[in-house]
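Render this sequence as a predicted structure.
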Amino acid sequence: MEDNVIIDLYWCRDEAAIPATAKKYGRYCNTVAINILNNPEDAEECINDTWLHAWNSIPPHRPSLLSAFLGKLTRNLAFNRYKQVHAQKRGGGEIALVLEELEECLSGKDTVEQEIDRRELIKELDAFLAGLSPETRRCFVRRYWYCDSVRSIAEENGRTPASVTMLLSRTRQQLKKHLTAKGYRI
């Protein structure tokens, strides 16, 4: 089923929208949730919450790209669930590692000015990503948006885990340099 048809089902408040969404995007959203939560039961709960949030958001919101909309919902819900489950910094998985890797280029302490400049920061991140080679951008987004393991990124790109680790390290350094040059405090 085409995305515009699925969105129209949501707009008509037709309950068939949810199974149609699950059929088309269930595996994609499940991959996003599993990469973050590393727990099938939590991921399944997160996916069900994604469908509920989509139902409550459409209308009034009409997403231009349904896959990105659902992916973002799933990702945000999975991170919230992760924070809830790991409130005392226990457990493993990729999230702690991903956040630790990014810690060197992004401050965790937001000032009022930084919150006001959030949209500018998003533009700078987009510009930085646009300037990367397709392979580097793909590896970076897979690691820091989808929270994929270094091993899976390496396998999909015909690289060794060590070369992916080095690529990500260099890219984080470039990001830090880029943001610092634009006036962001790291």
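Summary. The two ends are 45 Å apart (CA to CA). The chain has two domains: 3-85, 94-181.
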